[in-house]
Structure formats: C-alpha cells, structure tokens
Write a structure and sequence with these properties.
Layout: H1 3-18, E1 22-23, E2 26-27, E3 30-37, H2 46-65, E4 76-77, E5 81-93, H3 97-100, E6 103-110, E7 120-129, H4 132-137, E8 147-156, E9 162-175, H5 183-187, H6 193-199, E10 211-213, E11 217-223, E12 226-230, E13 233-244, E14 255-263, H7 271-287
Parallel strand pairs: 3-8
Antiparallel strand pairs: 1-2, 3-14, 4-12, 5-6, 5-10, 5-11, 6-7, 7-9, 8-9, 11-13, 12-13, 13-14
Helix pairs in contact: 1-7, 2-7
Length: 311
Amino acid sequence: MSDQLIAWISAVVLVCLSASAQANGVTIDSREYKLLLRPENFAGDPGARAAEFCDGRLKPIIAAHLDRRENGESRAKKSFALHHQRRVSFKDTADCILSTTGFSYRERTLMATDAGATGNVETTLKFRSPDIFLSAASRFEGSEGAKSKFEEDISIAQGAVSRSGYSYSISRKQPAGSLATSLQSALEAFPGSLQWLESLPATQPRPEALLGTGTVFAELVYSKARVDLGSDTDGEFDLTFWYPSDAANRDRPTVVEISFGYETDSGEVDGKVALRASKLFAAMRNELSALIAPGTQSKTSRALPTNCREN
C-alpha cells in the first residue's frame, strides 16, 4: 500500500471520527496534532531556525496541500514569535506507577526573562488513554482557580500512521516551596485522582512512594503562526525547543516538536475544518518525513526519569 494511499485513508478516518467531537455525551474541548522532529536539524539560534522552518517548510506545505481562501490567498497566516520561556520537569515513582498507567505529573515555571514570571509553579496532572470513554471517566478535581481540559492528541505510530489519544488534565499554580515529594503529596492536590489510579487494572500504588525527577529542560515556545481552517477556526502552531536547563548555550536542542491545534465549538467541529486539519497533518507527515525523529513520538517520555522512558 502506497504512502499516499495510507495518508488518504488516515485523513478520511480522522474526519469520520472528528466531524463531531462528541461521543455519547463526552465533549472534546480541543484537538492538537503533534510531530517530534530531529533536533540536530535545528542547531543554532532558535529564533532563526523557527523563522526558516515557518517560511521554508510550513507555509509551502499549506500553500501546496490546502485549498485557497475566498480571496485567493494561502491559508497560512502570520509567522513564529517567541511566546514562552519556561523550565519544565516531570516526576514519577521508582516503579513508574504514573507513566505506566497513563498519568503524567508536570511542573513548569516561567523563566525570569519571560513577562509575568513569578515565584509560582504550575503543576499539571494528566491522564491519557486511547480510549475516549476511559479518559472521560477519570474526571478528578483541582483546587479553586485550577483549569481543566479534555483534549484529543493526534500523533503518529510506527509506519507513520495517525493515532489519537485522549487526555484529561488539570493545571494549578502553587508556591515553589510546596512542591510534591511523594505520590500522595502530588495526587492529594487533585481530589479523586488517587482513587482513579487505584481503580485501574493491575495497579497497587503506594502513596508513600517518593517521586523522582527526570531531566529538567529549558523550554522555548515559538507561537503566533496560524492556518485558516475555515468556519472562523484557526489552527495555531507551536514550535517547541527543549534544552538541558544547565546548558551554557541554547544552540543544540534535545527535543523539537511542531504542533498545531484548534478549539472545538462546545464539542462540535465543522466537517470541512476537520478535513483540512487532517489533510494538513498528512501533508506534514509526508513532506517532513526526513525530519521526523526516530523512536517514541512522546515528548513527555523524553523528560521522565530514565527508567520510565519509552524506547
């Protein structure tokens, strides 16, 4: 079966699944398409690499593979600009109880150079599964002011075929001095999460288990570039660079990810929007095939403690 036929079938399947982002009362808030890229191709100044990638790769792909807007112009809009500079880390237990059951626990802080930087840490607990109903059933809670999101993530599996995962997450901010050191202290900030973890198959979590931290990364996120998907819906691109936080210079990233996503209309997605997004992702997979990173396409996995990472 040819790569073009596989891409076409994948696009059709995604549209069939996505014309409505609701299933038996489950409402998807947003959809995000992701590709991990070979970091060695982005060595040097990240701002320059982002501009080159936008003008030399993304915009030509959009122009070649998507229909034009009513005014005859390409559906590509704007260009990348530095949006976030953050420190990112993930934690898990020695027996990887979180990652092996679909959970992830992230800590993220704005760097001093980022506007709005404070002493607070954003902590995010996420549960992810290929089963949309299982993810929806995980609805744990957060403290007052916490933000929740139910999202579909579209990435690629072996053979460059698209696959979907569904994640429910809650993010909250807390003082840097009160960070979690054990499984219990991490989950108690998200009521219902420990009970959900305990209910999953073949899990016997030990609440007292200590948490270990994976590689701490300096994260640079370039945003603002967009694609007009129609029906007043823009897909918003992020080009994300991860560097070891202790690196003297940010000229050799460890992880590079290109992603684009869009919000649903209370769970509804226009069929033409879904089709354009699927066609664009198929075109990106094909046109950027030489740049796609080998191994796992999970960015999170690459930041976990070493023994918890995927291959």
